[in-house]
Amino acid sequence: MAGGFEFTPDPKQDRRGLFVSPLQDEAFVGAVGHRFPVAQMNHIVSARGVLRGLHFTTTPPGQCKYVYCARGRALDVIVDIRVGSPTFGKWDAVEMDTEHFRAVYFPRGTAHAFLALEDDTLMSYLVSTPYVAEYEQAIDPFDPALGLPWPADLEVVLSDRDTVAVDLETARRRGMLPDYADCLGEEPASTGR
Q1: Cis peptide before 188, with omega less than 30 degrees from 0?
Q2: Among 53, 117, 163, 177, which residue has the fewest nearby CB atoms (within 10 Å)?
């Protein structure tokens, strides 16, 4: 996926418990090329079967996300919806849990969804811009053209907004999707490292 990255930190355990650092500046900058500009931190608790997404933020301003599962287990999905991107319409999925401690970086212009695979799953987000309701948009997470890998054995719970979200092609025709060049222009400046 162009611009999306998965990070797996090295946890430290001893008789007291566990220490893990899901976001490490040096590793992030080395992979992405710039620091992550944190404007807000979000915690979302979901019951098993809750599916949130596919969500994205209008660009500009757009929004980068760094997502981590702090409790439970979730299937996290990124979809490239940037018109003109070499990976437009492609997706990747990562199972996130407190065993492997994976985190995922979502660049501007990508859509994000996660499905809670256990009750009381806590997803923690660092985001690059504050939440503004008018900029938040959604694409149907069950769009057959995307073919996302949702498990068939779960009864899925969606928000009202996600239930009526349009498919990717309809969003493209309506001009809802971000332009790849605009998304690249909105990325934070490189640190030069």
Answers
A1: no
A2: 163
Please state which of the ranges 29-33, 58-62, 158-162 shows the lowest mean pLDDT.
29-33
The closest alpha carbon to 45, from 112, 125, 145, belongs to: 125
Told to judge if 131 belongs to the known catalytic residues of this protein, a careful annotator would answer: no
What type of residue sits at position 10?
D
Strand, helix or coil at 180?
A: helix
Catalytic residue (one of 55, 66, 105, 112) = 55
Catalytic residue among 66, 100, 112, 125: 125
Q: Is 112 exposed, middle or buried (0-12, 13-18, 19+ CB in 10 A)?
A: buried
Q: From 10, 4, 2, 11, select the one nearest 83 (Cα to Cα).
A: 2
* Residues 151-172: tens digit of each pLDDT: 999 999 999 999 999 999 999 9
The CATH classification number of 5-143+150-186 equals 2.60.120.10
3: left (phi over 0), alpha (psi -120 to 50) or beta: left
Read off the pTM. Answer: 0.85
Told to judge if 34 belongs to the known catalytic residues of this protein, a careful annotator would answer no
DSSP-derived 3-state class of residue 2: coil
What percent of the chain is modeled with pLDDT above 90?
Answer: 70
Residue 139 has φ and ψ, to the nearest 5°, of -120, 145
